[in-house]
Design goal:
The complex is a heterodimer. By secondary structure, chain A is mostly helical. Helices cover about 75% and strands about 0% of the residues of chain A. Chain A has one domain: Orthogonal Bundle (MetI-like fold). Chain B is an alpha+beta fold. The chains are: A mainly alpha, B alpha+beta.
Chain lengths: ~220, ~350
Amino acid sequence: MIDWVAIGLSVKLAGITSALLLALGLPLAWWICFSARRARRVVEALIALPLVLPPTVLGFYLLLALGPRSPVGKLYAAIVGDGLVFSFEGLIVASVLYSLPFAVQPFVAAFEGVNRGLIEASWCLGRSNLETFWRVVLPLSARGVLAGVVLTFAHTLGEFGVVLMIGGNLSGETRTVSVAIYDAVQALDYTTAGQTSALLVALSFVTLLGLYTTRGGAPWASRS
Amino acid sequence: MGEPLIIQLSRSYPRGPTVRLHLETPLLPGEVTALFGPSGVGKTTTLRCVAGLERLDAGLIQHGSTVWDDGRRALPPQARRVGFVGQDLALFPHLRAWENVAYGRGAGDEARARALLMELGLGPEEASRRPGQLSGGQRQRVALARALAPNPQVMLLDEPLSALDANRRDALRGLLRQTLTRLAVPTLIVTHDRAEALALADRLVVMVAGPEGGELAQDGAAAAVLRAPKTEAVARALGFDNVWTLRRDDAGQAWAGALRLFGEPGERLCLFAEDVQLTAPGAGDGDATLTERLWEGPTARLRLDAGVPVIARVRQAEAEGLSLGQRVGLRLRAPGRQ
């Protein structure tokens, strides 16, 4: 039987992760685009690490970094009164870090696609960086930003390795849909695994279809 | 009386050219100063430094008593209140024409934007279109209106008409000059087009390629610079095809090669190709031999040898009757002299 709780948890996790990465990723991508500092390359490489690292490696280091004996874990426990690992909040932290490149890289590509001359024109017209961002850069890169959000959502939805390392398998708390499928297969319940997998495929496909449908010529592009 | 603009600029590029310029120019209301010269001498760099879009390596940019950039600290473009129109116009593609014009801080509301566009010849229908739906000339007008709308202290125009074809360029040149004069905005314009510089500018700042990069060669009233180019490089930059230095014979006659002229020894004589006319041998200011003929549509460009190299441009029909090696007479008119 399909684990609807796990599906609901995965959607919730993907939604929160996407929202957080939208808030964190936009300023980070802006800094990467417009920083002349060498640190930019280092930051870009760090952000891209989850693309090449095995999820278990990232999960292992996160387990150490967020665990009850780590400074972060101790601080969190002192404030919230509970541990960060094997909790939904721990999953969010891990997902944000793991999905960072899926948000930031499309954001950077979108910002870099905006003609620098438009930004300079905005400055010369007296508009601040923030005004320029909201009124020129964001409208012109909206599709790229949307792509980053959708990719983040879809990627988080199917997370397994990092989720398992950080969250474990607590029903209603950290058992996501991919972990539920793994459990079903372990229990030789191929019917449930198949139904849940098909649902995940359909959900991911619809998400990506939505992304590609919104692509195409910008409404303000020249008709000539 | 306008505020003077002081530009003491030094800007280097890694593995690229250096630009050096020391210029103090009064920015009078409605007066247009043209930074003129061939490509690659740093005209655009200078304009971008004045706008605050590039930083100085060293030097000073000061407007009135306000230092805009001293090589260490620089005012951001937002604080300089300049109206900048770059070569690509950089109109915001997602905004309608009037929204582009009303975008700037202090540019006013929709009514003012539409009124400004109307003054520049764009009606309500065009004002409601996005840049992608406008012609090149219409986009140019929107860019100009957008830069003027916030009442800038200085207008900075970088080859503003370069993207247009010749007919549209001529039409818009007059409108541009009228608008700048009427709104009394001091303007610094960059151009490599002699006709544009002379049609628009009250003052000319001629930049040429120096041994270490682009540098200022001459500045002054446009008519004075054209009448008396300081160096051969300036004369060439201004488009003079013939630049000769006069010598005098024992009888006191001034010569350039085999051409009899008026003037003092050492004086530089500068002529456009159009100012050299063909006559019968012995009937003009001297004779020359035709060495090369290049067809240029309704005219032909002739290269001749009169002891000095001579370039002439004549009508096609006139050139058709000539053959290479033929001797012809030359008559010179309206010389620019130093």
